[in-house]
Amino acid sequence: MRFQTTAVVLVVGLASVFSLPIPNAGEAKEIFDFLPEEAKTFYTSLTEQDLQILKELHSQIVGKDCAVACEIIKTRSEDLANRLKTLHDTIMGKINGMSDIPKNFLSNAINKLQADMDMVAQIKNLVEILRAAKELPKESKEEIYRSFPSLKNFFENDKVEQFLNENKNKSPEEIVTILKSKLHHN
Fold it and tell me: Where is the signal peptide (predicted)?
């Protein structure tokens, strides 16, 4: 399935956004806190050398499945490739162990986030995912939250909800402009 690149996209994205220091305040920390514990642990284990490798190989690994991406990374760091594969396998094991509704929701969410790399499409997809999450049956949400507790903080976050409500009639382009403005002011 297409969600094989989840860990790779997540890690490369994190490396680009946070550039090594673990955020400890503001919106960057809030975003970091929404990540699954496995991803946070992996991210905190990254060295400057690991981040440099991921940045340098970014164009070669984006869009590749985990096995191919790990083989590319292995040419520079076998340890990093092995840690990334472990992260991928752990997250995918949790998703694949779920019942159909939460499993399909998470698989579709990951596919959407990987489908387009430009920011406008990503924001549009993220908004669709958040709205779809609101429609999930309670049991499905609880199953997701048991495996990925931080997603509850994201799906049920008052700030996220308020932002969605305030911008429900705006285009993805307008939302991206708003987000960029917020990032530049923080």
Answer: 1-19
* Residue written as token pair 């860990």: 7
Side chain identity at 118, as an amino acid letter? D
Q: In sequence order, which residues have a C-beta less than 8 Å from that of residue 16 and are 6 or more positions away?
A: 55, 58
The Cα–Cα gap between 179 and 186 comes to 11
Asked whether residue 119 carries a pLDDT value surpassing 60, the answer given is yes
Distances (CA, A) of 102 to 16, 128, 133, 149, 154: 29, 16, 10, 14, 16
Which pTM value belongs to this model? 0.75
Q: Measure the CA–CA gap between 7 and 13, rounded to whole angstroms.
A: 10
Q: Which of 93, 61, 91 is nearest to 77 (CA)?
A: 61
Q: Cα(157)–Cα(140) distance, rounded to whole angstroms?
A: 18
pLDDT tens-digit readout, 125-171: 888 888 889 899 999 999 999 999 988 888 888 887 887 788 778 87
| Cα 149 to Cα 170: distance, rounded to the nearest angstrom | 30
> Cβ(76)–Cβ(60) under 8 Å?
no
